[in-house]
Structures are given as C-alpha cells and as structure tokens.
Amino acid sequence: MSQLKMTIDRTNERSKINKEIYGHFAEHLGRCIYGGIYVGKDSPIPNINGYRKDVVEALKALKVPVLRWLGGCFADTYHWKDGIGSPEERRKIVNIHWGGVTEDNSFGTHEFLDFCELIGCDAYVAVNLGSGTVQEAAEWVEYMTSSNVSPMTELRKKNGREKPWNVKYIGIGNESWGCGGSMNPDYYSSLYKQFQQYIPSNGKIACGPNATDYNWTDAIMRNCQYSGMRGLSLHFYTVPTGDWSKKGSSVGFPENEYYSTISNTWEMETLLKKHDAVMNRYDLDKKIALVVDEWGVWTDVIEGTNPGFLYQQNSMRDAILASVNLNLFNEHSDRVKMANIAQMVNVLQSVILTEGERMVKTPTYHVFDMYKDHMEAKLVYSHIENKQILDGRYLPAVSQSVSVDASGKLHITISNASLDEDFDIDCVLPRTEYKTATAKILTAKFDTCNTFDDPDAVTPKAFDDVKLDGESLKFTLPKCSVLAIELC
Ligand code: AHR
Fold first, then answer.
1. Catalytic site residue 175?
2. What residues pair up with 380 in beta bridges, in sequence order?
3. What angle do CA 41, 349, 274 make, to 5 degrees?
4. Given the CA of residue 178, which atom of ligand 1 is nearest to it?
5. Which residues contact 379 (CB under 8 A, 6 or more apart)?
C-alpha cells in the first residue's frame, strides 16, 4: 500500500459551491417521465397526484436543488400549449427523437412545475428555439411566471393555477448546433438575442458548446455577452470505449473498459479549464456561468430494450465517475454554477431505476447523497500528491474536493479509482482544531449494480478507519471506493 500526502488549507477559502451543481435533468425520453416520475393518478403504483411516491421520497432525501426539463432534443420539438388543459383533450404527438413513440402530453407545464414544488427544487425550463417561435416562447414564460393580467395568465388561472410559479432558469434552445437546429454559432447568437429580448428572466441560459467546441464558446461569448446571459451550457458525456458506434455495456464490462471510462471522464477537467479560459477573454469576473447541464456516462442500452429509450444499468464504476465529475465541478465552482446529471430516472446515468412498482437507488444516487453537504458550502484549498494508474493515458488514482459549511464543519469527498491499490492518506490541516471525524464509504467490485432483486448491493456504510489527531488526519482509502469524511 502506498502513502499519499495531502494538504488542506482551511484558511484558504475559495468559491462558493452553488447547490445547483447537484442538479438533475429529466427529458421526455423513454421511461424517465412516464413510469419513472409520473404514473398518473389512477395507477396502482402508490402515487401522490400521479407522481410515484417512492421516487418523490428518494428525491426529497437527496435535496435535489434544481431540475432541468423537458429536453434535451425533445425541447426543440415541443409546443407547450399541447401540454396544458384537460389531459384527455391534450394533443398526442410523435416523439421524433426518442423511439418515435406517442407522447400523450399528460405530463406538461403544470405537472412539471407542481412536481418541482413537491420535491422542493427550483425549475429550469428549456424553451423551443429550434422549431418554435419567439411569441410561443415568450407566452410560455408569461404563462408560467407572470402575476399580471394577460391572456396567458388568465389561461393559467382557467387551468387551475392562480399564482405564478417560480421558474429560476430558462434555457434558450438545446444543442442548437445539433438536434436543436443544426445551426452555426453566429446564426444561433442572432436567434438567442432575438428570443431573449422577449423573455423576462434573470436566469437565461444560452446554448453552449458540444464538448470541445471552443469556437462555439468564443462566438457566443463575443456575440451575446451583454444580452442577458446568466449562463452558457456545456454538454459532455463519457463514452466508455470512446467510440459512439460501440459505446460499451453498462453491465459485465471488462477491467480495461472500467479504466478507459474513468480516464475518459477526466476529459471534463480539460473542458472546464479550456472553456473557462475562453470565457475569461470576455468575462474575467466570471459573471456568466458555465452550466454543465448534461453530463454522465452513456453506454449501449440494456439488451432487449428499445434503443431509443437509452436505458442502462449503473454500477460502482459509475459511482467513481460521478465522484470525479462532482469533485471537478466543486473545484471549478468559481465558473461552474450549475450541473445537471443526465438523467434523473431510467435514462443514461440515473440516480433511480424503476420497473413496474419496484424502484432502486443506484450507486450514483448514493454518491449524490454522500456529497450533498457540499451544497452552498465554501470550497477550500486541497492538494494531494496523486498517482497515475495507467501508463500512457491520463488517469489519476485519486480525486478529491473539500469544503467548509456555514456551521464550520469540514467536508472531504475523495475517491480511489484504482482496482489494485489501497492508499494510506496522510493529510495535514494546519491551523485547525477539529475534534471528531466521521466517515461513510461506498465500495464494491467495479461492475456491481443495484438490481431490483438486490437493491442494496452497493450502499454506503459507516467507515471508522479515520484518525484525527490535532492537525493530522490519517485514513486508508480502499481501492474502488468513494469516501465522505466530516470533521467537526
Ligand atoms: O440526454 C440525451 C440527449 O443527449 C439529449 O436529448 C440531448 O440534448 C443530448 O444529445
């Protein structure tokens, strides 16, 4: 077992970790909304006004801060008036991007915003820029958020909602360089400016780049920096093999694919640094946020499931991947103000999977749960003398972040991606007087999943191999594990 030296400088407080970094994304895709979140009031599955009771409880426990809806690619095909009024009379449409299935629009504006109120999170709604009009988008925002008298607010009241909802963020289009209209950045900039002019909101998020498209970031910042842009989105998915035509499986994958997945995940670090550097050319004060509103692992679908539904399992590997990403977002929280894992239930890297009336919390769920004390805390400086796992490709063994919350407690989250080696962490915390250390660990064989028959195969446990002695903290970090330590 090797020793790794770590330093935490509690006196070096850095940026605030916005709670929205722990946000989620839910699209009308596969069984995310229907079956995953919403089953309808008449369902035999226990529900609260149609929302699954088990899912609501699990999400409340996670303290979900913000939920991005309704796409994704679906957003730029959506006409919001299809999803209001009596559910029986709502227009049925074809979901052209995701399996060509019928979308009956029974989950619409009211159902989404009421759901956010139920689980206690902020709402982030993406308006249709790709195939919709400025008037349609402006009217939707008015319908949702205005307390004034207008045809749209009258319509809302007629549909049963007197008071406006609080919609904190509005996304102006989604992946406008791809499924949202195949635009070039200058064309998108002009449309963004036109749309945003008629949308009263302090939370407008412009469509940002696809992964490494730094030209896109540069063009949008140059063209739109003074046009009410609260944030610029970034989408990046980890593909295990790196090959979109054969992404790799979410179950029973080999060890080398585990390592390529984690190594590919570290690409996020480069993206955050480089997009931040481009944004700095226009916005050194970091007033415009980088919003990573789609991230996670994207594997081949589970065999026998609809390829358009993007249903995959979730393993201990994905817990390590989540840990690396969340630590990176914390570390870059001076620029990254929101992130939304794709997607909340039953799609891609979900925190929850459902099958009929059964539900499981995935290993990724547990990572979010173990990290939730970072929300709204202050990032503090930490450094570890890291070790490379693989020769020839970037793959640090350890990933960490440290924060101090409003009550002064210190929260350390740290993961070990190595499958062979435990580490003795020898950490110094100069000028601190913490008295007690408590810790939780998530660990299992790298491909272990929580299944409907074995829902707790990967679940956090108390961990007591942590010794705090004055300014010294020593602990063992087992291979393939995520650890959360709290110092009081
Ligand atoms: O999350 C699945 C899809 O990935 C989204 O609809 C789209 O925005 C992205 O390409």
1. yes
2. 13
3. 130
4. 10
5. 13, 14, 15, 16, 17, 330, 331, 333, 401, 402, 403
Check whether 1 has a pLDDT greater than 90.
no
Report the DSSP pairing between strands 437-443 and 481-487: antiparallel
| 3-class secondary structure, 339 | strand
Dihedral Cα 465, 466, 472, 476, nearest 10 deg? 50
Task: Specify the DSSP element, H or E, that contains 153.
Answer: helix 151-158
Q: Give, using CA atoms, the residue closest to atom 4 of ligand 1.
A: 72
Task: Determine the Cα–Cα distance for residues 197 and 33; give it in Å rounded to an integer.
Answer: 31
pLDDT at 405 over 90: yes
Distance from C-alpha of 294 to C-alpha of 299, rounded to nearest angstrom: 15
Q: Report the DSSP beta bridge partners of residue 238.
A: 297
Name residue 462's beta-bridge partners: 440
Burial class (CB in 10 A: 0-12, 13-18, 19+), 286: middle
Q: Which residues, in sequence order, are bridge partners of residue 123?
A: 67, 167
Q: Which of 40, 68, 64 is nearest to 52 (CA)?
A: 40
Average pLDDT, the chain: 98
Q: Cα–Cα distance between 27 and 4 in angstroms, integer?
A: 42
- The pLDDT score that the predictor gives to residue 391 is 78
Asked whether 207 lines ligand 1 (CB < 6 A), one says: no
Residue whose C-alpha is closest to residue 453's, from 363, 367, 358, 362: 358
Instruction: Using pLDDT thresholds of 50, 70 and 90, give the confidence band for residue 129.
Output: very high
Kindly report, residue by residue over 254-306, the tens digit of the pLDDT. Answer: 999 999 999 999 999 999 999 999 999 999 999 999 999 999 999 999 999 99
222 CB-contact burial (10 Å; exposed 0-12 / middle 13-18 / buried 19+): middle
CB 430 within 8 A of CB 297: no
Beta strands in 333-478 (DSSP E): 336-342, 352-355, 358-361, 378-384, 398-404, 410-416, 423-428, 437-443, 461-462, 466-469, 472-477
Q: What is the mean pLDDT of residues 81-90?
A: 97
27 C-beta closer than 6 A to ligand 1: yes
> What's the pLDDT score for residue 252?
97
Gap between the Cα atoms of 70 and 109, Å rounded = 9
Q: What is the DSSP string of 200-248?
A: --S-EEE---BTT-HHHHHHHHHHHTTSS-SEEEEEEEE-TTS-TTS--
State which of 24, 97, 236, 294 you would mutate to test the pocket of ligand 1, scoring each by most atoms of that ligand within 8 A of its C-beta.
Answer: 294
The size of the chain, in residues, is 488
Q: What does the pLDDT average to over 161-171?
A: 98
